[in-house]
Design a protein that fits this description.
Order of helices and strands: HHH
Number of strands: 0
Largest sheet: none
Strand content: under 5%
Number of helices: 3
Number of domains: 1
Structural class: mainly alpha
Distance between the termini: 46 Å
Length: 96
Amino acid sequence: MPHTDMTKPFSTNPKLADWVPSPQQIKTIEEARLLLDLVPEEEGDATNALRINTLNVHSHLHPEVTDPKQLVDDASEFLAQQVMRRRRRQGQEKGE
């Protein structure tokens, strides 16, 4: 499922609309998607889309990561940190 349509953004995330990943980033992301058994975003559920977005965002922020397994591990850790931050912030807003 290589991304070849360069008239369409690589990511459906509006914050990444102008992002043009390098061929190496595309290869790494596609191999990471295979490791996670992800389907194309338009064919999957919300969890599938979240995981794809997480890989895309992490690759955008860290283009030096070229190992698909490392991308999966780092992106998963990144997502976990975001969830924990959000929960802490929500707890503070509620006065907990």
